[in-house]
Write a structure and sequence with these properties.
By secondary structure, the protein is of the alpha/beta class. The protein contains 13 helices and 15 strands. The structure holds pyridoxal-5'-phosphate. Pyridoxal-5'-phosphate (PLP) binds next to helix 5 and helix 6.
Length: 411
């Protein structure tokens, strides 16, 4: 049966998450399908950052490290993130960038398997994951990066493999890996797995410890709503923590940073994964975003996200038939993260035309239109409105206008 706007409106009325939208600043004129790239601004963030800047930094100056617990930010925010990804307090810290954390934990995986020399990943993995692996392999001069297609993964994990590096939800196709299954298979071959959760944490329930996971990293600025360039996070299973000697052996990961010893001695536990001084202003913003998510039921978040993706695909089928679009993501929502991706030969100008109409998604080379669903602040009627505008742009070929043809640096 064809979906009507009235059907879609009724989904918003019964949505158990609908009140969360009031906690975010989402401009009225915008349909925001890019919270998987940069999450929306929580309403409390400006006040929290102002307080930190004026009342803490401004008034209490350096005393704030102790008085306002600045020094505990990486652990405090890390413990909150742990609750979103199926980890225990003390297994996660918020720190650095995802790229830097990938370096640390890839090195950790290699250290735990000194007799093995291979890192396995997918050719389609997010570029920074691959670039960091390439850099580490080049630095060491003793290891190899084995890149395979998704369908070849299982066979590629053999007795030479030290670490498997995978992104749980593929950034381009939205395809979801079976975390527990792959982890079990890798362990059976004697390898560890490093999961990049950038497109999963905060969008769907993640159960790191139930899956027996070893390592994980992820972004703070996507579904965690921590703001542009927010600190990232990393997870190390408790059983591995004290067996790792961090290659980025900075003073914040020292057992006693303020003893100012000449020699590095790693802190016990997860803290040894810290490197330098935390970015306190950014931590304050991240904490607000994460705190909102800790109050949400992630099962409800997942259900809504799956329904939104299904609705989007159904509306595209019904309303945009014959207009050149085809799915670039799984149709089965169980196999998909919180996004829908579509192929079109003119994806770049189409996305520019959509953005000009207030429908913000993004373009991913070579030809993908990507629409992310952030159930805490997106409505089903946004999905309806977004597809209606997409249809209009395709039918009128408004995307052919010259102003939509120029590639900007950030796509
Ligand atoms: C899967 C994945 N990993 C990592 C990153 C980015 O890492 P960083 O925060 O270090 O730039 C992204 C950014 O979109 C991503 O999608």
């Amino acid at each position: 049966m064809t979906v009507t706007r009235a059907d879609v409106e009724s989904l918003d009325v019964t949505d158990p998450l609908r009140s969360f939208r009031d906690e975010f600043h989402v401009p009225d004129e915008v349909v925001y399908f890019d919270g998987n790239s940069l999450g929306a601004l929580p309403r409390k963030t400006p006040e929290r950052v102002r307080e930190l800047v004026e009342d803490q930094w401004g008034r209490d100056l350096i005393r704030s490290w102790n008085a306002h617990g600045w020094i505990h930010y990486p652990r405090r925010v890390g413990d909150q993130i742990a609750s979103l990804i199926g980890a225990e307090p003390g297994e996660v810290v918020a720190a650095d960038t995802t790229s830097v954390n990938l370096f640390k934990l890839l090195a950790a995986g290699l250290e735990l398997a000194p007799e093995r020399s291979v890192i396995v990943s997918e050719k389609e993995n997010f570029p920074t994951d691959l670039y960091i692996a390439q850099g580490l392999v080049e630095l060491l001069g003793t290891h190899e990066l084995r890149l395979v297609e998704r369908s070849e993964l299982e066979a590629a994990i053999d007795a030479d493999v030290a670490v498997v590096l995978l992104t749980h939800v593929d950034f381009r196709s939205g395809e979801l890996h079976d975390m527990a299954g792959i982890t079990e298979h890798a362990h059976a071959q004697g390898a560890t797995v490093l999961w990049d959760l950038s497109h999963s944490a905060g969008a769907l329930p993640v159960s790191l410890n139930d899956a027996g996971a070893d390592f994980a990293v992820g972004c703070g600025y996507k579904y965690l709503n921590g703001g542009p360039g927010a600190p990232a996070y990393l997870f190390v299973a408790e059983r591995h923590q004290n067996n790792i000697h961090p290659p980025l052996s900075g003073w914040m990961g020292h057992e006693a940073p303020f003893a100012f010893d000449t020699d590095y001695r790693p802190a016990p536990g997860i803290e040894r994964q810290l490197c330098g001084t935390p970015s306190v202003l950014a931590m304050a913003a991240l904490e607000v975003g994460v705190e909102i998510l800790t109050r949400a039921d992630l099962t409800e978040v997942r259900e809504k996200s799956q329904r939104m993706g299904d609705l989007f695909l159904q509306l595209v089928d019904e309303q945009c038939d014959g207009l050149g679009l085809s799915p670039a993501c799984p149709r089965d929502s169980e196999k998909r993260g919180s996004q829908v991706s579509l192929h079109h030969a003119e994806s770049y100008p189409i996305m520019q035309a959509l953005i000009a109409r207030g429908v913000i998604g993004d373009f991913r080379a070579p030809d993908v239109l990507r629409f992310g669903f952030t159930p805490l602040y997106l409505r089903f009627t946004d999905v309806w409105d977004g597809v209606a505008i997409l249809k209009e742009i395709l039918e009128t070929e408004a995307f052919r206008r010259p102003e939509f043809q120029n590639r900007q640096l950030v796509t």
